[in-house]
Amino acid sequence: MDHPRKERTLVLIKPDGVQRGLIGEVIKRYEQSGLKLVGLKMFVPTKELIEKHYLIDPEWRVKTGQKTIDSYRKKGKKPPSEDPLKITEIILNNLKRYMVSGPVVAMVWRGMHAVGIVRKITGGTEPLTSDVGTIRGDLTIDSYEVSDIDGRAVRNIIHASGSPEEAEKEIVLWFNEKELINYRLVSEEILYDVNLDGILE
Ligand code: GDP
Ligand code: MG
């Protein structure tokens, strides 16, 4: 296994993040953590790309459908269907409409525990309950309930890979290896160097 400092993760700023003028704020938050930006581009994705992206994990349909049913029950509400697959069919269609509605910013961030650090900075999926201090908790206001009533995807600004394995599969989908840059940042010296013997003259 590669050293954890070489971990990579995919981040997408979704169309609502771009429209709200949050590109700079979002990049700032990841950049300040010490992670390294190694790939960056902006374009309008196709529905095919979005479908491939969400179906990379063969379990996604069942897991997300079940999660939705559970979250309705927890709130004492009746889920829109008892069949997880029916629910994810709707979620996926809404996601496809949302994600191709305008440009998105796709990025690859690299560094120690990149996946976990980015998830922490991003916050939980539903803005209503995402922690304060996170991107989804601070910068937007949506909920599953309202997005379901309105028949649209939850506008939560960001996609961030869920695990290192998922990240590697997603990166191949969104980037050519040639678009990703191998380089050193001077700050890596203080983040990773074991001996710290290059500072004092
Ligand atoms: P993420 O990794 O935090 O983005 O969350 P997931 O991978 O679990 O879900 C991917 C996307 O599916 C989310 O960004 C939401 O748009 C949608 N989604 C996930 N869970 C739910 C849910 O319970 N209800 C609704 N309406 N949408 C959901
Ligand atoms: Mg996910």
Automatic annotation (TrEMBL):
The enzyme's E.C. designation: 2.7.4.6
UniProt cross-references to Gene3D superfamilies, sorted A to Z: Nucleoside diphosphate kinase-like domain (3.30.70.141)
Entries under PROSITE patterns matching the protein: NDPK_LIKE
GO molecular function, one term: nucleoside diphosphate kinase activity
Signal sequence region: none
Transferase as UniProt keyword: yes
EC class (word): transferase
Annotated ranges, domain Nucleoside diphosphate kinase-like: 6-182
Key words, A-Z: Kinase, Transferase
Required cofactor(s): Mg(2+)
Keyword Transferase: yes
Domain of life: Bacteria
Family: Belongs to the NDK family.
Protein's UniProt name: nucleoside-diphosphate kinase
Source organism of this protein record: Candidatus Jorgensenbacteria bacterium GW2011_GWA1_48_11
